[in-house]
Amino acid sequence: FRALCTKDKLLAAFGERPVRLSTANTYSYRKGEQGPGPQRGPAAAPRSAPRPPAVDVPFQEYVEHLLKPQDPAALGSDTLYFFGDNNFTEWGPLFQQYVPPPFRIPGTRGAYSFGIAGSGSGVPFHWHGPGYSEVIFGRKRWFLYPPDKVPHFHPNETTLAWLRHTYPALPPEERPLECTIRPGEVLYFPDRWWHATLNLDMSVFISTFLG
């Protein structure tokens, strides 16, 4: 599977196919919900012109023009991120080659979300059902809180901005559990646990959501 996820192989197979990009903030990630749930954070954040919650572009355009390191000053609403919203018909030949983690929760089935993102990018704190995340290329840093411990964050702040401005001031008892996963490593995220991610390099990754 890793051999199929190189830049050249992906562009050859999917370069002309459209991909859906979402803005990298909590509101965009939790599509269809009434906000991201309870949060603690700044009372206000800088505003910018609203960007559509999702944008469709050819995969080659994303790779050649939009796949770049995260701007530390950019808001989540100004950052486009390719993860999830995969067209399973068009990307099916790739997903058919993936061998998911062998562990399952009884009564659940797995659904894949594939992503490619630049260094410094990531998804801010949010929660959903359980699943696995595997890195194919690059490194991904994870920050996790149990369901009853709501993190301090603003839903339109990128993970990189949170790490630079909020994280250093957190007392030890308020800091998240964290780890970094590398190629071939898999992380299990439990049901309804808060988590945020930060891609330390240009990264290719896939998640298996159990539902």
UniProtKB/TrEMBL annotation:
<dbReference type="InterPro" id="IPR041667">
    <property type="entry name" value="Cupin_8"/>
</dbReference>
<dbReference type="GO" id="GO:0005634">
    <property type="term" value="C:nucleus"/>
</dbReference>
<feature type="compositionally biased region" description="Low complexity">
    <location>
        <begin position="36"/>
        <end position="48"/>
    </location>
</feature>
<dbReference type="InterPro" id="IPR050910">
    <property type="entry name" value="JMJD6_ArgDemeth/LysHydrox"/>
</dbReference>
<dbReference type="InterPro" id="IPR003347">
    <property type="entry name" value="JmjC_dom"/>
</dbReference>
<protein>
    <submittedName>
        <fullName>JMJD8 protein</fullName>
    </submittedName>
</protein>
<dbReference type="Pfam" id="PF13621">
    <property type="entry name" value="Cupin_8"/>
</dbReference>
<feature type="domain" description="JmjC">
    <location>
        <begin position="77"/>
        <end position="211"/>
    </location>
</feature>
<feature type="region of interest" description="Disordered">
    <location>
        <begin position="27"/>
        <end position="51"/>
    </location>
</feature>
<dbReference type="GO" id="GO:0000987">
    <property type="term" value="F:cis-regulatory region sequence-specific DNA binding"/>
</dbReference>
